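Quick log. Single chain, no ligands specified.
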Amino acid sequence: MHGEYKMPGGKLVVVDLDVRDGRLARVQLSGDFFLEPDSALRTIDAALEGQPADMDEAGLARSIRNALAPDVMMYGISPEAIAVAVRRALQGEHLA
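-> predicted structure:
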């Protein structure tokens, strides 16, 4: 499944994932945003991995926020934007 979201005033967020047994699997975040440190990308993927496929955007964003260290810098992206891309992937929606 593939979802995209252009964050207002930000960058393009892309999420590719599968669903297995009602849970997110093989989550891969990409896009034209920047994260520091680079390892935060793996942390975000891991935070989403295994989450219920019916979790709402607020819950997904909270899972991401809770997994990230306080010193992570996100440029052109937010946990909420990632959550929108995840929900779009699950619903078969793309750019808006």
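The chain is about 35% helix and 30% strand.
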